[in-house]
């Protein structure tokens, strides 16, 4: 087991989200440093890592239980994604620092949530709720037609 896996072992889901935000901030710093030294390849690699994290976070949103919070996070991830793409395309330190400031603010909110036992208990209950999966949804039309056919 490597150091990174050991550092994440035993963390609750919210602490893992905070770790992903920390990763985004670290890679945004790397992208800014790459721009400042004229390293196009380094900038692209760092931005790709940020975008990978954003896509992972986006894919893990549960719109069925998250309601407006999940929708707001989805919009936030899309905005940061666009800002990072623009910052990379223009090699704009200003745009990437703007993205970094936004990510830091939301990271701090997640960090507060990570320390609240009541919120953690609620999140655990939600994660144990039955989930609709792709296979469940695929079977639904067949079940509906079986109910209505004679």
From TrEMBL:
Taxonomy, superkingdom: Bacteria
A Gene Ontology biological process term: bacterial-type flagellum-dependent cell motility
Signal peptide, first to last residue: none
Keywords: Bacterial flagellum biogenesis, Cell projection, Chaperone, Cilium, Cytoplasm, Flagellum
Entry GO terms, CC: cytosol
Predominant location category: cytoplasm
InterPro entries membership: FliS, FliS_sf
Pfam families: FliS
Keyword ATP-binding: no
Subcellular location: Cytoplasm, Cytosol
Segments traversing the membrane: none
PANTHER family membership: FLAGELLAR SECRETION CHAPERONE FLIS (PTHR34773:SF1)
Protein family (similarity comment): Belongs to the FliS family.
Protein name as catalogued: Flagellar protein FliS
Species this chain originates from: Acidobacterium capsulatum (strain ATCC 51196 / DSM 11244 / BCRC 80197 / JCM 7670 / NBRC 15755 / NCIMB 13165 / 161)
């Amino acid at each position: 087991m490597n150091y990174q896996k050991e550092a994440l072992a035993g963390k609750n889901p919210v602490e893992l989200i905070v770790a992903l935000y920390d990763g985004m901030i670290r890679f945004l710093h790397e992208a800014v440093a790459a721009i400042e030294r004229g390293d196009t390849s380094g900038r692209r690699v760092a931005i790709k890592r940020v975008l990978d994290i954003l896509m992972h976070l986006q894919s893990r949103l549960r719109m069925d239980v998250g309601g407006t919070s999940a929708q707001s996070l989805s919009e936030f991830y899309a905005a940061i994604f666009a800002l990072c793409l623009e910052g990379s395309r223009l090699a704009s330190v200003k745009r990437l620092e703007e993205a970094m400031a936004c990510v830091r603010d939301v990271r701090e909110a997640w960090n507060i949530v990570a320390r609240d036992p009541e919120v953690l208990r609620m999140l655990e209950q939600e994660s144990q709720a039955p989930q609709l999966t792709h296979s469940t949804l695929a079977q639904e039309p067949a079940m509906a037609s079986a109910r209505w056919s004679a």
